[in-house]
Structures are given as structure tokens and as C-alpha cells.
Amino acid sequence: MNLMLTVVTITAALSALLATISFWLPLTNPDYEKLSPYECGFDPLGSARLPFSLRFFLVAILFLLFDLEIALLLPLPWADQLVSPTNTLAWATLVLLLLTLGLIYEWTQGGLEWAE
To answer: Is-above-0.70 flag for pTM?
Structure first.
């Protein structure tokens, strides 16, 4: 117990010390050059704070969803070693069917079109 208390005390003290140093150490003198966006040595052409398209986030979420689907279905070939492989196959088919129906719905609603 004494060793654990010592380790926690040293960790907390070191974290507090480093956090305090990180607030006082850097010199922050922002000027126009530091606040302007960097574009490979050229003068900035416009604002760097333009919002992203919502369609970009939709496609990114769909990519993550289907990427996770592959991760969930990866152990499926080893399912024939289970007691009831038909049960596992039925659940995998249900997951694939649900994701396929979701993709068809997005496709028919025009959610995957970049141009409007």
C-alpha cells in the first residue's frame, strides 16, 4: 500500500509540475503572419475556416460503418467449428442484409451524390 501511495503521489506531482511549466514556458506573441493560414509560401487566397460539406461526413460515416462490418464478419470462416454454425450464419446474414438495406436506402435518397 505504501508503494502504491508513493507512485500515485510522484505521478500526480510530476503531472502538476509539467502542466504548470507548459503554461508558463511558451512565448505566445501572435501577429498577422502567425495567425494567417500557410499555403505553401503563397499569399492566402481566402478564409481557412470554410465549413466542411455535410456529405463528406456522411460518406466518412458510411466508410466507418462498412469497415466495422468487415471487422465483425472476419471471424465468420471459423464459425463452422462452433456447435451451431447455422445460428452464426443466420446472424451474419441478418447483419449483411440490414447493412445492404441501409446502403440501398442512402443510395435511393441521393445521399451518396457529391453534386446536387
So the answer is: no
